[in-house]
Amino acid sequence: MSASDYDCIVVGAGIQGSFTAYHLAKNNEKTLLLEQFLLPHSRGSSHGQTRIIRKAYEQDFYTHMMDDSYELWSQLETEANVQLYRRTGLLVMGKEDGPDFESFKGTLLRSGVPNEILDPAQFAQRFPDVRQIEGDGALVDKTAGILYADRALRAVQSVFQRLGGVIRDGEKVVDIRPGFPVTVTTSSAVYRARSLVLTAGPWVNKLLSHTGLQLPLQVEKINVCYWREKVPGTYGVGSEFPCFIRVKSHGAAHDIYGLPSNEYPGLMKVCYHGGSETDPDERDQQSSQEDIKILSRFLARCFPGLLSTPAVVESCLYTVTPDSHFVLDRHPTYGNIVIGAGFSGHGFKFGPVVGKVLCELSLGKMPSHDLSPFRIQRFQSHPKSSL
Fold first, then answer.
1. What is the pLDDT of residues 270-282, one digit of tens each?
2. Residue 249 above 60 pLDDT?
3. Using omega within 30 degrees of 0 as the cis cutoff, is the peptide bond preceding 373 cis?
4. What DSSP state is assigned to residue 380?
5. Which in 34, 181, 205, 358 has the greatest CB count within 10 A?
6. Is 254 one of the catalytic residues?
7. In what order do the strands lie in the sheet with 145-148?
């Protein structure tokens, strides 16, 4: 095995790690991006053709971070000369006097995000192919739309390499020795660096075990479902139908979200924002179908233009924290190890700004955003943590 020296090593070439490496290279850091699987792959959380991008959030800090993220996405589009975003708007539905819907509305209004609040008559006129649940409110985040996920991942990795960055895929990390420098051993080589960033998604706790740290993270397998339109184009690209979120529908514990047909013509992507706990290395085992039953009931009630049995079911992994907020912090013992984890199924759109702040932490700079909601310290009283 050979030893190679870098300024920084990033482990995990999903969207967060790839953007971290990109920002480090822009800061003239000699950067190595390691990935255990051969690229491209569909074993983690960054694959697939589409994701929702939005400013509509229940928390102001996410909306503020998205201001920065939109600008950085646009910058990458220019650098890579490829379209990564299509604006569709986002329809948010939920119990009008419920705390969740009120939080979405309040954040949009406080932050001055372009929006529309729809009364029932306006809703019926605007979305004739959606049945509004009695007592629901509805609003539209006009800035929202679709990110082309696979295309985005290729673009940021390509620009990173153009900036002199090195990607080594098919190299699984088998050991990490903290110190200065930190030493990373893979299945093929040994590397050293001044700093290390771990963005390994569902595998991050397996890597952290080499550093004496475990975070309270749960890995969930999500069924990614596509539903056939009875009349092609009803909810598709040509119809100008928006993305949507239904906040905790039908007494369910999680939101339901959907995107206009894109991956499969005539099929709309509608998913439940929660899944069944799994081991990331055992993800191909049969998972629970309870979420599909919830989706079928919801679509039969609210989306009469869709068949209520999924035509295609794929899978994705969420790495979920107890509060569903990210982990963006330095290791509590080893300050030159930085951790980005727990993106809880809503992190892809934040990739550019997450990469930016993880780069800043790695370089010892003041983060450009308030990271207090994302500190490891918040878990100290949690029984699963070992700090």
1. 999 877 677 665 6
2. no
3. no
4. T
5. 358
6. no
7. 50-53, 145-148, 85-87
- Range with the poorest average pLDDT among 97-101, 136-140, 346-350: 97-101
Beta 267-272 vs 256-259: how paired, if at all?
antiparallel
- Select which of 23, 105, 228, 269 is catalytic: 269
Active site residue 26: no
Phi, psi of 43 (to 5 degrees): -95, -10
The pairing of beta strand 182-186 with beta strand 173-177: antiparallel
Residue 210 appears among annotated catalytic residues: no
Please state the pTM of the whole predicted model: 0.93
| Mean pLDDT value of segment 62-91 | 97
Q: Taking all residues of the chain, what is their mean pLDDT, rounded to a whole number?
A: 91
Q: What CA–CA distances, in Å, run from 328 to 16, 282, 342?
A: 11, 27, 9
Residue with tokens 């589409």: 50
The structural domains of the chain, ordered by start, are: 3-46+150-217+323-379 (3.50.50.60), 90-142+218-320 (3.30.9.10)
CA separation for the pair 283, 279 (Å, rounded): 6
pLDDT the model gives residue 385? 37
* Residue 51 designated active-site: yes
Has 331 been annotated as catalytic?
no
Query: Which of 250, 226, 323, 242 has its CA nearest to residue 94?
Result: 250
Listed in sequence order, the residues at least 6 apart from 263 whose beta carbon sits closer than 8 Å to its beta carbon are 48, 49, 50, 226, 269
Residue with tokens 């697939």: 48
Would residue 309 show up in a list of annotated catalytic residues for this protein?
no
The active-site residue, picked from 50, 185, 186, 199, is 50
Say if residues 280 and 316 touch (Cβ distance below 8 Å). no
